Amino acid sequence: MKTRIFDRYGRxxxxxHKYTGEEPxxxxxxxxxxxxxxxxxxxxxxxxxxxxxAKDLFxxxxxxxxxxxxxxxxxxxxxSEGERCANITCLKLARAMNNGMIPTRxxxxxxxxxxxxxxxxxxxxxxxxxxxxxxxxxxxxxASIQAQASLxxxxxxVKILSPLQRLSNKVNKTIxxxxxxxxxxxxxxxxxxxxxxxxxxxxxxxxxxxxxxxKDIYSWLEVYRxxxxxxxxxxxxxxxxxxxxxxxxxxxxxxxxxxxxxxQLDKYSSSNKKVRKVRNKKVKSASLQVKxxxxxxxxxxxxxxxxxxxxxxxxxxxxxFNTKTRKLGVxxxxxxxxxxxTSLKEWNEEKSFSLTIRKPDDIIPILLKKSEKxxxxxxxxxxxxxxxxxGRINKxxxxxxxx
Length: 403
Known about the structure:
The longest helix is centred in the middle third of the chain and has 27 residues, at about 125-150. The chain is of the alpha+beta class. The strands form three sheets. The protein has a four-stranded antiparallel sheet with strand order 7-4-3-8, with helices on one face. Helix 2 crosses helix 5 (about 90-100), helix 3 packs across helix 5 (about 90-100) and helix 10 (about 215-235) packs antiparallel against helix 12. The chain has helices spanning about 15-20, 35-50, 55-65, 70-80, 90-100, 110-115, 125-150, 165-185, 200-205, 215-235, 235-240, 250-270, 285-290, 360-370, 370-380, and strands at about 300, 305, 315-320, 325-330, 340, 345, 355, 395-400. Strand 3 (about 315-320) and strand 4 form a beta hairpin.
């Protein structure tokens, strides 16, 4: 059984996290010590190399392009080239930057110069590196398209058959041709009271004809059924004349054979119809869920900043703080919390609550740095009356912590 690379929220499922760590998160990476930033950047390359192939990361490149000045047509062109067109390093960088990694730092050169054996003329910019690679692919692709267009000029009049047309041709060659032989042979053209038919079910299975291909066969049989019935009922002079060489028993036997073959088609159709599976509702990726979420990235008065909202989908607890009202919101759930628009969803109404923080400088550091057991006790010790929460996140809300 193939191991799933990504979880339902689009994050890498790090099954060996004890050895590799979880997928790198880049909250506040612009203010990290340069040593921490470079170490995490290096771990990022090893992490994606361990879990992901170029095919797994290719969508991240396509997602990165529109946010960095590339048109829909250019994205489509890169997509048509496939994952093998791009360097795997570029794909890793694209995913990391999609997840919040900054492309370069002003103190990179200082770091490089402090490390023996490292040398570089100037600080490396990941955006510039990625764009150079994409532009090179686009130039090659355009040249290939122009060359192919030149080769295809002579073949522009070649008719391309649709899948349905190809199926219709196959049915005519394999099934209807056999029915035509049956009419011309097997006693159908002679004055007999009984005739032989063909086993349509066996013939359809032998030629792997899908249910969609039965339409032409039904039509062929219906033409003969109607004609024979008109001759038997004497309701159409042309059909009466066409089957005049047969007595009524002969017409009836042929009508019975046609009807038997129609019944065969009905049975074949019923037994080969694909039962449509009930589709499970597709869970949106974390990035799509939080796309419209409005929150406050940082607040200087309280000296706090939000963690990445990408971690909310799939979490079981979210702590938020409204800097305007000083209300702490605690969202807890037994099921994965999700995001829709500007609101949190799937949280437990009985376990979730809000309360006003009278001394933020005392309680917020505990909420940010202490364990769940410790900060839960700190919240329980507050004497402020608890209220209900509505799940809405606005421009005054700091995302304090996500578990």
